[in-house]
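hiii so um. not sure if this is the right channel but i have a protein structure encoded as tokens and i wanna go backwards to a sequence. like what aa goes where. can anyone help
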């Protein structure tokens, strides 16, 4: 919900509200937009929060320290309430892929939700990195939430020259020079860059409206490819089934009996939460 001088506007955090995906993920509705939603969405999805309203003044979610950790802390401080409605999951039953030149992202059938992310940057402090993430709130908080946005000095200077990215700083962005690190503080993880890509993917995938049981494999992807995969999942309802977790909320229950009646189509999809 965006508070204006004389009225309040709202926008659902779903793929139907997707705006531009250049450098960040943007939601738009009617005549307004909300930029840089991926970190707070990642915090919500990483903590398995399905139902939330986010109020803000302005057009952009605060960058904070460039990670999802501050949002995780705020969400935990305000409290998380269990609701009676059972959680619903999309379970992938056939592979779905999106490719663009050397970049790709695929989701495969899997008993449990996993992410494998691979990046390759010609920088001595990054180069090739691969990270495998087991999608649980505990793993997210310990190993993903604190990974910060990263950029290269030449890119940052170019954006500033165009009047863009003015909210970026060494406090909320890991900035690499040609050979090293511009920031005075060290990396939080040796592979912080690829972990941040996992963080972004978790946030972008939440636009689907349901958590996914599947194995995501991303190679040099980004916001554009992440959200293209979300749309590809929506467009291929024959390749997944919609399941209720039941009162036990255990994956063993989800992987039990299924039937054709569990197939859901686009008109049945509901947002998991709203940015309001």
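sure thing!! here u go:
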């Amino acid at each position: 919900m965006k508070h204006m001088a004389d009225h309040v506007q709202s926008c659902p955090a779903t793929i139907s509200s997707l705006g531009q995906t250049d450098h960040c993920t943007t939601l738009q509705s009617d005549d307004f937009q909300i930029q840089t939603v991926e970190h707070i969405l990642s915090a919500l999805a990483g903590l398995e929060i399905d139902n939330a309203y986010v109020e803000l003044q302005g057009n952009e979610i605060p960058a904070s320290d460039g990670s999802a950790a501050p949002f995780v802390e705020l969400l935990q401080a305000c409290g998380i309430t269990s609701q009676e409605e059972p959680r619903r999951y999309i379970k992938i039953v056939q592979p779905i892929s999106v490719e663009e030149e050397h970049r790709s992202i695929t989701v495969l059938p899997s008993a449990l939700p996993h992410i494998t992310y691979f990046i390759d940057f010609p920088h001595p402090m990054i180069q090739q990195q691969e990270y495998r993430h087991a999608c649980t709130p505990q793993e997210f908080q310990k190993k993903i939430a604190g990974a910060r946005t990263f950029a290269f000095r030449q890119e940052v200077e170019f954006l500033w020259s165009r009047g863009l990215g003015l909210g970026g700083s060494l406090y909320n962005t890991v900035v690499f020079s040609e050979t090293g690190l511009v920031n005075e503080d060290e990396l939080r993880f040796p592979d912080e860059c690829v972990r941040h890509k996992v963080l972004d993917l978790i946030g972008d995938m939440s636009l689907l409206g349901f958590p996914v049981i599947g194995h995501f494999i991303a190679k040099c992807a980004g916001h554009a490819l992440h959200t293209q995969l979300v749309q590809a999942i929506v467009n291929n309802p024959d390749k997944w089934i919609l399941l209720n977790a039941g009162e036990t909320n255990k994956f063993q229950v989800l992987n039990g009996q299924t039937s054709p009646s569990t197939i859901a189509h686009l008109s049945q999809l509901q947002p998991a939460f709203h940015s309001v």
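oh and The first strand starts at residue 2 and ends at 3.
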